[in-house]
Amino acid sequence: MRWLFALLLIVLALPALAEGPKPGGHPRSGLARVDLTHSAIAAEGRDRGRPRPLDLTLTISQPVPYRVYFLDGPPRLVVDFREVDFSGARTGDLTGADLVPDLRWGRFRPGWSRMVVELPGPYALRRAQQVPARGGAQGALFALRIEPVDQDEFVTRGHALSALWDLPQPALDAAAAAPGPADRPLRIAIDPGHGGHDPGAQVGAISEAAVMLGFATELAEELTRAGFEVLPTRKDDSFIPLERRMTIARAGQADLFISLHADALPAGEAAGLSIYTWNQDADDRATRELAMRHDPSDLVSGLDLARTDDQVVDVLMDLARLETQPRSEGFAKFVVLELRQAGIGMHRQPVRGAAFSVLKSPDIPSVLIELGFLTDPGDRANLFDPDWRAGTSRAIARAVSGWAQDDIARAGLSRK
């Protein structure tokens, strides 16, 4: 299983599944090796006896999956690399190694190597990326920047930010591959769209953000009654950046991500409930307009997500979705089945693809449900009808149950 995710200011790159040229133009083969002549640790500013921002650059012979997180006692930066061979590379030969209290690396389990950088105090990750190597070097350049923070802002592994950069452990059996570990219920992230200074679609005094928050609360109650754990991305009228919503889901170890919307399109252009899964190539007019409505909300806060993924990672992200995408599509089909049995009207094409940012995560099955369109009188009436909302919530909860059982069965078959 090869997983990768690129969220906020972090980009993880996955090696090609088939042989092909690496960034430097040479064929890939075997483990990636470290080029210390094009690697370094650098500190920003003058040494005044206090922790300074640090930049770590490591040149390796080919891009690999990695995960980044922090540990405390003492403060440490940990980077796990898949298929990197550190043998023969001495930490003392890394330029700038003396800027940190301690530095070590090596193999820690089959197929994985680990680099541990002891830090002079608490830090936070500000940027991480993997790009083609520079300065005449071959392969890939792994670069990250960390900056000093107060102790109460130091996030170690297992908390919200560290989970953003952590790769799941490989599934060793069907139970591990199935959603919801045996020691806890299935965990569902519910994401009411928009919020705060981004009200979403508006029709008179009605805002999409408020309507979705209300429906999310009702859906959460149904899921809880059905025995699931619910992880909301927002509980009030606050603005949550798009990719932060996925961070919250990942930090809570969500097994499924459901985003809720009720948008606005020109009269007669769209009506009825639809379920969307990730499709970067979706090109119908309504979907393009919806993508423009969903994603620019982050631009209001100065976050331009359009350039967070480099060109190489765009391709590799698709490879990482080879397992998760069918599971997302499988859940969408269960939703349609349950809604039909409940007599809930849907769009004539109920399951569709779209390049919505909240669907980008390749490690968590994700769907976006357009419950209807505020610009359509019939949809608007449904959204304010208690019976319709209750019936729809119950149908979605049943879909989660059916999908979970089917997912476990499929995981067992794939192992045989």
UniProtKB/TrEMBL annotation:
Cited Gene3D superfamilies: 2.60.40.3500, Zn-dependent exopeptidases
CDD domains reported for this sequence: MurNAc-LAA (cd02696)
Major enzyme class: hydrolase
Catalytic activity: Hydrolyzes the link between N-acetylmuramoyl residues and L-amino acid residues in certain cell-wall glycopeptides
Signal peptide: 1-18
Keywords: Hydrolase, Signal
InterPro entries given in the database record: AMIN_dom, MurNAc-LAA_cat, N-acetylmuramoyl_amidase_3
Domain named MurNAc-LAA: residues: 246-401
Domain of life: Bacteria
EC number: 3.5.1.28
Protein name, per record: N-acetylmuramoyl-L-alanine amidase
UniProt organism field: Paracoccus mangrovi
